[in-house]
Amino acid sequence: MKDVDEGWPDAWRDFHHGVRIGALWVGPPWEEPPADATPVVIDPGRAFGTGAHATTRLCLELVQQAEPGSLLDVGTGSGVLSIAAAKLGFAPVAAFDIDEVALETTAANASANGVDVEVISELRPAALAVMNIALDVVEAMLPKLTVERAITSGYLERDELRAAGWHRLERQVRDGWAADLLERG
Q1: Residue percentage of the chain with pLDDT more than 70
Q2: 32-64, pLDDT tens digit by residue?
Q3: What is the dihedral of CA 142, 53, 121, 152, to 10 degrees?
Q4: What stretch of H or E contains 140?
Q5: How many of the other CB atoms lie within 10 Å of CB of 24?
Q6: Given 20, 87, 113, 158, which is the most exposed site by the fewest CB atoms within 10 A?
Q7: What's the CA angle centered on 93, arms 27 and 82, to 5 degrees?
Q8: Residues 182, 184: Cα–Cα separation, whole Å
Q9: CA proximity to 134, closest of 67, 60, 55
Q10: Distance CA 21, CA 64 (A)
């Protein structure tokens, strides 16, 4: 039988480092954010989302360009997008997920960041939705949303989003991944 390093439960922390995304710094609680950045401290726990993936970065870049207003984070995971939005002045901010662990993780991360993010298990209207989830889920969710605009990602640059009643205003790409700013109509 092979010996297992006693530090194995925390070894993943060696790979989770903070990243600068415009005015934001998204990182773990064991790293110090730069003094000139707005910190978004995320401990993903058992939920998806550290902020380092290209799709998350693309979403956060587009959120920083949007006019602050009400925001709905669909498939919130760790809450990184909704917490960043709250720090950028969006309000009210609601985080939706069907996974109870994701909602608990988002609530804990929002509290740790000192922002007001309401975790919800039913969709609600907002001016802007953000979704960083698989393409088929984005396409299935868009018709169910009562929002004016949406920032979507979680799919490859070669993927073409198909959603009746929506048109693309902007597309950004990074490392083969894409994010779209969409408008209803």
Answers
A1: 86
A2: 999 999 999 987 554 455 557 899 999 999 999
A3: -10
A4: helix 135-141
A5: 25
A6: 158
A7: 20
A8: 7
A9: 55
A10: 9
Which amino acid, 99?
D
Phi then psi dihedrals of residue 100, to 5 deg: -60, -35
pLDDT tens across 171-183, in order? 999 999 999 999 9
Overall number of domains in the chain: 1
Q: Could you give the C-alpha distances from 83 to 51, 118, 164, in angstroms and in order?
A: 11, 10, 29
Q: Is residue 2 part of a domain?
A: no
Residue 74 identity (one-letter amino acid): V
Task: Identify whether 20 is part of a domain.
Answer: yes
In terms of residue numbers, what domain contains 149? 8-184
CATH code at 44? Answer: 3.40.50.150
Residue 1 is assigned to a structural domain of this protein: no
